[in-house]
Design brief:
alpha/beta, Rossmann fold, 6-stranded parallel sheet, 7 helices, 26% strand, globular
Length: 190
């Protein structure tokens, strides 16, 4: 395995207390747009924890009125991942918004006194001020995301960056709904 040149301080030891904060929407759309696949959040938390003491793993999710995503939320819970839900906002004119940036930031700051390492599972550059703040508080800040959709400035700032694209077979689940039919396939997409 080649060394990751984005590591400034890859110190990870079993006594570190780790918090994992998952921006589900960012990861979902990154995996869908880059690879036509879904994300294996269980393997991501395992990778992010890296044998250290997991204090909290929180997935920030968006719910709809139909509640069709409930089986997904239940699966996260069964993996030991806490979920925080926010309803999808639909504005006049049809625009939809489902943003958790502030919620993730507040939770990361609020929980940081009981953590040695904070792992952001998102490539969203909006977290750069959070990364800067946490590092100035003496925290190790790591990002786990897909390289193709991760802010380059974010990659430079963090103490450790894990590019999930380098091991797609571990972190992705193929979703037949996203697969496009080929000449050899009669697969119909949903």
């Amino acid at each position: 395995m080649k060394p990751n040149l984005n590591k400034k301080n890859p110190l990870k030891h079993p006594d570190q207390r780790v918090g994992v904060f998952i921006d589900v929407q960012n990861m979902y759309y990154s995996a869908k747009n880059l690879f036509g696949a879904k994300v294996d959040f269980g393997n991501i938390v395992k990778e992010a924890t890296a044998g250290r003491k997991l204090i909290r793993a929180i997935a920030y999710v968006v719910s709809t009125e139909s509640k069709e995503e409930q089986p997904f939320f239940d699966a996260l819970y069964n993996l030991g991942i806490e979920t925080k839900e926010r309803p999808l906002q639909i504005f006049y004119g049809g625009e939809k918004k489902a943003d958790w940036d502030v919620g993730i930031t507040v939770d990361a700051i609020r929980l940081s006194p009981s953590l040695d390492a904070i792992v952001l599972v998102s490539g969203d550059g909006d977290y750069i001020p959070l990364i800067d703040y946490l590092q100035n508080q003496g925290k190790q800040v790591e990002v786990v995301a897909f390289g193709g959709t991760t802010s380059s400035k974010m990659r430079e700032l963090v103490d450790d960056f894990t590019d999930l694209s380098e091991r797609k077979n571990v972190f992705l689940i193929q979703d037949r709904r996203f697969v496009k039919p080929t000449k050899k396939s009669n697969l119909i997409t949903l």
